[in-house]
Automatic annotation (TrEMBL):
Name of the protein: N-acetylmuramoyl-L-alanine amidase
Family annotation (InterPro entries): MurNAc-LAA_cat (IPR002508), N-acetylmuramoyl_amidase_3 (IPR050695)
Ranges of residues in domain MurNAc-LAA: 262-372
Signal sequence residues: 1-25
Listed GO CC annotations: outer membrane-bounded periplasmic space
Amino acid sequence: MKKVLTFILILFTLLIALPFQNASAKGATVDAFRYKTRNDASVPFVRLAMDLSSNVNAEAAIDDNGTKLALVLKNTKLSDGINSSYTINRSIVPSVTFREKGKDVILSATLTNSHKIGNNDIKIFGLKADPSIDKPDRLVIDIPSASAGTAAGSNSSNTGTVYSSDPTISQTPVDFTISNAAKKALKGKIITLDAGHGGTDVGAIGHLNGKEYYEKNITLSIVKPLAEMLHQAGAKVILTRNSDVNVNKPYSDSVSELQARCDIANNAHSDIFVCIHIDSFKNGSVDGTTAYYYPKTNNDMLLARMIHQANMNDLSMPDRGIVSNHFYVNLHTNMPSVLVELGYISNTHRLQMLTSSWGPKVIARSVFNGIVSYFQAV
């Protein structure tokens, strides 16, 4: 007997609700399949990823022994480039097979389960197509080598961390003096800072001198000095995370993870929410900074404009504009919010700056200036 997993999904409509209902009815194609063993979480895991021509409806089930996973993609076909079987990782997922059955595609994965995994351990989530970075709709499956119960615990209280002071951060980052005008603008303000990704979600990956660099670490290296400056200026600073952890729990699905970050800001009654990310693109020469907002309040665009203008004034980065976008954290926070992409991890020159001892602090100073300008304007 099989037990149906808790993540029976209608993919993508949970991530972004409107544009996909008709696409599924027309049928989808599995255009590519990739897999990789990852060691950047509390336990190793295998990530399976499928590129899709459009979104799909999917159902997943695992058998009682935890040794077989079946995923049914409704109204879907296999492209000619998809093999019938793949050898993956003999210690976690020995094999994966694909077959068509009627109008559906069935993916079957064998699991080597020395530490029995359950329904909540395997994570299945959809990623919406992003034409700006030439990414199609994707379906991702993360299969851990052990139950999440044996891994790092959850940080699911959704209260965040009130920043006080971090002794590892210089009290005056990059010879930066906080003006009396800045202190006046920020005194008593509640500001939630969100370092994008973290824990089992590494974000974008850059390569420099034969080494991999993860977006999750770079975003945190920017947020920490930014929090220090805001704290010195008299603001109450809330961090969604202050270390390399998931905000919700390890292997959390995208919606739960992002909602946990929004909950922290909403529960704190924050004045603003600032989400820090690093961009990526297949063309390594592309670089720049973008500020994304959603006009749910009168001041979302103002916040994005002030931070983006400060970045243009202070940083030698190409201007990729201020863009209205339906990013989850901008939609589901109650206060003015912005998601900023601060350079491209795929650009070697920018990655050198982002991983230097001074680069993150310079960027943090620029974002700080933009936040000050925002509060002076409102």
